[in-house]
């Protein structure tokens, strides 16, 4: 991890959110829970709770996807804001893989089928450049998909 990290501020978040919504042809409904958003942005800077880059990225991704800071586009915003965090901290080499994979997993996060630990394992694997080669990780992801199916069936 770099000694000095670039963190998102509220202005950057609003700009990224608005651009994300514009690209996906949605109206910009904006922030509905400013306290949660501010909390996420402040907490990832706390090295006691989130000492490593992967801890910070995991918290940012999960929190934006789950806390419903925005009226619409929370899952898309989780991906976009995490991508910006990666790019501005020198991890642009994994962005394509990150976006593709997290688009698959963000629904699992939102439904509580994917744990914090599993999300972090996936992110660490991507950062280490060995994503897709760990069979035990693949099995954990499969279990999360099965859990998601059970959750969705319970709503029928």
From TrEMBL:
Superkingdom as given in the UniProt entry: Bacteria
Residues spanning the signal sequence: none
Molecular function per GO: kinase activity
SUPFAM superfamilies linked: Fic-like
Domain Fido: 5-128
PROSITE patterns: FIDO
NCBIfam families: DOC_P1
Listed name of the protein: Death-on-curing family protein
């Amino acid at each position: 991890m770099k000694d000095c990290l670039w963190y998102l501020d509220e202005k950057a978040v609003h700009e990224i959110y608005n651009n994300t919504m514009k690209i996906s042809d949605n109206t910009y409904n904006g922030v509905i829970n400013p306290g949660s958003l501010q909390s996420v942005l402040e907490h990832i800077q706390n090295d006691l709770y989130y000492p490593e880059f992967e801890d910070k990225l995991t918290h940012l991704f999960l929190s934006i996807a789950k806390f419903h800071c925005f009226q619409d586009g929370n899952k898309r915003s989780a991906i976009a804001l995490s991508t910006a965090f990666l790019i501005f901290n020198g991890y642009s080499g994994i962005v394509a893989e990150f976006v593709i994979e997290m688009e698959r997993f963000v629904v699992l996060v939102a439904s509580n089928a994917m744990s914090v630990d599993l999300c972090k394992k996936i992110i660490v694997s991507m950062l280490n450049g060995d994503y897709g080669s760990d069979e035990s990780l693949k099995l954990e992801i499969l279990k999360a998909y099965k859990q998601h199916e059970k959750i969705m069936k319970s709503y029928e």
